[in-house]
Amino acid sequence: MSDTEQKPEATSKPNLKSGSGKTNSSAQLIALVALVIVIAVSYLGYREYSRIVPRLNQVEQTLLSERNLAAEKQQALEIQLKSLNEQAQEQQQLYAQEISGLTNQLISSNERLQGLEGSNHKNWYLDEAYYLLRIANNRIVFLADLTTAISLIEQADELLAKIDDPNLFTTRQKLAADLQRLKSYPKVDRAGIAIRIGAMQSKVEALPVLRLMPMEGDVVETKQADPQTWYEHLANSFSKLGEQWFDVRHHGQNYKPILNNKDERLLRSNLMLIIQTTQFALLHQEGDLYQASLLQLKGRLETYFERSDSAVMAMIMEIERLLEVPTQQSAVAGIDSLGVLQNHLQQEAKQPKLPTKALPTDEVIEQPPKPEVKEQEKSEEPVKS
Questions:
Q1: Other C-beta atoms within 10 Å of 38: how many?
Q2: Distance between the two ends of the chain, CA-based, in angstroms?
Q3: CB 3.0 to 4.6 Å from 174: which of 67, 100, 113, 337, for a disulfide?
Q4: In whole angstroms, what is the distance from residue 266 CA to residue 268 CA?
Q5: How far apart are CA 334 and CA 133, in angstroms?
């Protein structure tokens, strides 16, 4: 039994050796595969590294060149900025010099104005007074505007009062006489009348137009007898009440058709034109045109508008008042002081003027005349080679 039991143990040993050999071979195979993988990965890594390194070097060179270019641009900008600052400083200095020069010129001009002689001021005052008197005379002669003329003459008298010249005593006497004469005339407030006429323009659009207008020549006047009985009194009362609330057309009387919108606009435009014509005639002293325009305006209102309306009646009453207002200024002769002052100016112009000193800025340095060279002398000069 012992021999038989030892045989299986002997047979089992070779099996263990064969199993360990298989594991060793598989381990070697795995190690070999791992080594191959490591070598392949290393090769691929080296290959990629060798391909990326030139690109990295190129990128580094590009960055370095761009950095150098940026440094050069920055340096150029700094130089340009420095030059601009220098130019700005130079311009600022030039502007300061110009301002100082203008300031000095202004100071010298003020000194020159202050140093002018009194005769120049006198001439200025005389010329201005003469100009004002000419305007005043034209306002009197052509427009009969006494209010403006009086104001201008008073201004001219104030200017002459500033001149300390006894020769102007006669002129100022004539001015006082002209002022007294002009103030004695009755004044016509044409501006106020024109404003009153212009105020009617804003009321034209609101005036009610007459809707039923009887034809001229076709009106049949019916005179009703005085009521005698209570029945007639009652009928007359109902008739008046109906006329207040309704448009009553009597038999035997023809009526014009109602104005359409176009005709109504034309009518109101015609009224505006008549009002403007009235203002023009008033301001230009056209008395006949002024009266005719007002009468025409009144006729239009009485014919085409409701006379029972308060606005229409108020405008008609205003026209009647304007017809009674005097608008014509009495004839006024020109001012006498204008001729006196003109004679004074002519005498001043004939008097010799004293020489005045030349101002520093007006001095002109005359250069000596150059000697004239004759043509013969020029021709005899040797020609330089």
A1: 10
A2: 155
A3: 337
A4: 6
A5: 10
- Return phi, psi of residue 214, to 5°: -70, 145
Q: Look at the block and give the residue holding tokens 């005593």.
A: 169
Report the amino acid identity of residue 105: Q
19 burial (CB, 10 Å; 0-12 / 13-18 / 19+) is exposed
pTM for this predicted structure: 0.42
CB 268 within 8 A of CB 205: yes
Question: What is the C-alpha to C-alpha distance for residues 348 and 171, in angstroms, rounded to an integer?
Answer: 14
Residue 197: closest CA among 327, 331, 328, 330: 327
CA distances in angstroms from 243 to 131, 215, 240, 250, listed in the order given:
68, 19, 5, 11
Tokens of 326: 């005097």
Amino acid occupying residue 279: Q
CA distance 174 to 177: 5
Q: Phi and psi for 226 in degrees, rounded to 5? A: -65, 135
pLDDT tens per residue, range 109-163: 766 665 554 456 788 888 899 999 999 999 888 877 888 889 999 999 999 998 8
Find where tokens 């017809």 sit.
Answer: 323
Q: Can you tell me the distance from the alpha carbon of 133 to that of 117, in angstroms, rounded to the nearest whole number? A: 25
Single-letter amino acid code for the residue at 315: M
pLDDT tens figures, 35-71: 889 898 888 888 888 888 888 888 888 888 888 888 8
Tokens of 27: 């381990």
Strand pairing partners for 213? 256
Structure-block tokens of residue 138: 């034209």
**Stretch (H or E) spanning 315:** helix 310-324
Neighbours of 99 (CB within 10 A): 10
Q: Which amino acid is at 219?
A: V
Q: What is the CB-side half-sphere exposure of residue 360 using CA atoms within 13 A?
A: 6
CA–CA separation, 22 vs 30, rounded Å?
12
Higher pLDDT, 276 or 226: 276
Distance (Å, whole) CA 285 – CA 319: 18
Q: Angle 118-143/337-350 helices, nearest 10 degrees?
A: 150
Report the alpha-carbon distance of residue 327 to residue 189 in Å, rounded: 8
SS3 114: helix
Q: Which stretches does DSSP call E strand in the chain?
A: 213-214, 255-256
Rg of the chain taking only CA atoms, in angstroms = 59
